[in-house]
Amino acid sequence: MNRIALVTGANRGIGTEICRQLGQLGMTVILTARDSFKGEAAAERLRAQGLDVRFQQLDVREQASVEEARAMVLRQFGRLDVLVNNAAILLDEGVRFLDISYELLQTTFIVNTFGPFLTCKAFIPTMREHRYGRIVNISSEYGQMAQQTSDTSAYKLSKLALNGMTRILAEELAGTNIKVNTMCPGWVRTEMGGPSADLSVEEGADTAVWLATLPDDGPSGGFFQGREALAW
Ligand code: NJP
């Protein structure tokens, strides 16, 4: 069966690579980005590799933009099978908690945590209707409880909350064939990770693609890195 997948924040980095790997598995991939020019260019690069990749503008901060993406997906494909919540921002690297502004904390949560909330709200109904769904939240080991120290804390808290939301959703969807998992890609060479990071984007995308293609008896409500369970 031809699966339909949507990836947020996919104009660069791990997001583009997840689209590429899902496309290579034969899925129809909706590559989304907030910037249409960058997103269309990324989709075109993947189409040039023979993959079925469509572009749709999606700014995860905007409910109207998420709604438009949902309408387009349902109009063109009638369902969504795989949702990868990848878009994120890291604005407070190394900054102490009491030195961040309220606006920075809000902005970070709006993209990293509330964005996935909006996309899940938008796409879970069609997954329920078609009795299939694989939701992958790209989190971070910075979302682990043990990592909640006073630097980079807006980002860390937003990923901690994303992990909590994953568990809440998994419980709410128990008994359905919709699996929701969260994961850390590792330290990956992207704009966010920087050039000295350990992993290539191919390696960084691997666990996400594994979770996006879980069999019906696969896990839900888990936290993973390198295809292994990670402590909360
Ligand atoms: O990040 P980066 P990665 N609506 O910065 C987009 C996690 N992670 O690929 O700014 C829609 O290259 C942004 O778009 P634009 C990390 O937290 C990474 O490394 O317009 N999209 C870009 O396409 C994240 O969840 C590492 O160009 C929005 C993308 O998000 C995921 O891995 C370690 C947006 C970010 O690309 C991918 O990160 C770790 C919005 N409002 C976790 N705002 C690592 N790299 O080492 C931003 O533990 N974007």
Keywords:
alpha/beta; 232 residues; 6 helices; binds 5-hydroxy-NICOTINAMIDE-ADENINE-DINUCLEOTIDE PHOSPHATE; 8-stranded mixed beta sheet; globular
Question: Could you please describe the fold and organization of this structure?
Answer:
With about 230 residues, the chain is an alpha/beta fold. The chain has one domain: Rossmann fold. It contains 6 helices and 8 strands, in the order E-H-E-H-E-H-E-H-E-H-E-H-E-E. Helix 1 packs across helix 6, helix 3 packs parallel to helix 4 and helix 4 runs parallel beside helix 5. It starts with a strand and ends with a strand. The model has no long low-confidence stretch (mean pLDDT about 100). The chain binds 5-hydroxy-NICOTINAMIDE-ADENINE-DINUCLEOTIDE PHOSPHATE (NJP).
Give a nutshell description of this structure.
The chain is α/β, with parallel strands linked by helices. The chain has helices spanning 13-24, 36-47, 63-77, 102-130, 153-172, 201-212; strands spanning 4-7, 28-33, 53-57, 82-85, 133-138, 178-183, 223-225, 228-229. α4 packs parallel to α5.
Q: What is the CA-CA span between the terminal residues?
A: 34 Å
Provide the residue-averaged pLDDT: 98
What level of helicity do the residues show?
40-55%
- Give me the CATH superfamily: NAD(P)-binding Rossmann-like Domain
Instruction: List the bound ligands.
Output: 5-hydroxy-NICOTINAMIDE-ADENINE-DINUCLEOTIDE PHOSPHATE
Total number of distinct structural domains: 1
Number of helices: 6
What is the rounded Rg?
16 Å
Spell out the helices and strands N to C: EHEHEHEHEHEHEE
Q: Strand count, sense and closure of the main sheet?
A: 8 strands, mixed
